User: Fold Diguanylate cyclase/phosphodiesterase from Rhodanobacter spathiphylli B39.
Amino acid sequence: MLNRDSLFAAIEAQIAACVETGGRFAVLMLRARGLRQIALRFGYAQGEQASEVAHELIVQSLRPADRVFRAGDDSYAVVLPDMLSRNHVLLASARLSQAFEQPLHGMESPWQLRAVMGVALYPEHGQDADLLCRRAAMALDEAQRRRESCQIYQPHDTQVEIFYEELRDAIEANRLQVYFQPVRELQAGRLVAVESLARWTSPRHGVVSPASFVPFSEQSDLISALTRWSINATLRHAAPLCATGGLDFAINLSPQAFSRPGMVEQFRGALDIWGVAPTSVIAEVTETALAADLESSVQVLRRLRDMGVRIAIDDFGTGYASISYLRRFPATELKIDQSLVGSMQDDPHTTRLVSAIINMAHHLDLATIAEGIENQATEDLLAGMGCDFGQGYHLGMPEAAADFVQRFQALSPG
Assistant:
């Protein structure tokens, strides 16, 4: 675990030296993805051995003057003196990335890890140890979100530092909004479902993208509160439509919430409170969750599936899922990522790939939903491939759930 005193002392020593010389240095946070899984799969002794091997690998990849500290089960903090430019930092990160390109040896079984890094520079990103470490950690979070190997802290990330209190208060006071985006059956064109989307307008920052506040909530302790809010807020709007029938409601679930106790019970309780049948609900989880923690994801989602809730793998085609994952995962449908759908018109190879995904899903008795349909030509192409459902701006824009409910009830017979 992190010896904060030793790490901070090393950083403060560098600060003192740079004050005298006018020099620069960097703090780098590295996460060895896959390291935690060694301990879970093979035992803690093997996991500790792997952590030591990874630590030595990092040390050997750097200069003698660089200092390496354990910062968690799968994380390390590195102090890099004399970083005269960003290019020097990028060279150091490239060496570390290359070091993890080969399976980790020195154990009973070789294991492939992947290094993800975030960097903060002195003096421009902070002038004390605590701030430099926090901003390096923020950059690491951003690298993970973007699926990049290394990210240098960006000054606009200071917005994240002030999100916590405001986002927590917004969730607790129910100041977030639910939006519904239509999902249509492609063969008949009829409305069959909506996907629930969280929206937040901050008094201080204006409209905040879900791409900012959702990952931030996952990286903090707010994800449980946000998940609980999303489930209840969605079902509250779904309840008056259930009497009319015919619509399903998709709710995005973060795999980070799966490790929190009582999530399934909270879901069941919310269904009971709002009188919504489990069979009318689809729990969506991203494909990358399969690679992040397959065992806990499968366990939680099987319990939801046993309740009658359907399970969709979101953003399929861009992550790490494999056929072996699909065999174990209790999915009922695949959502084909919009990056693939949007490229179909210009790339025949992508078109064939999407067609293959649809055929594979149907062979596995999974329904298919195409995301990001932006025009009639794409809709017609997907319908011709036999894709079951679709969503995107061409088929229906997201709108405030209250407005959607009012409009849907007005159009419904009786």
Remarks:
- The two ends are 64 Å apart (CA to CA).
- The chain has a mean pLDDT of 86.
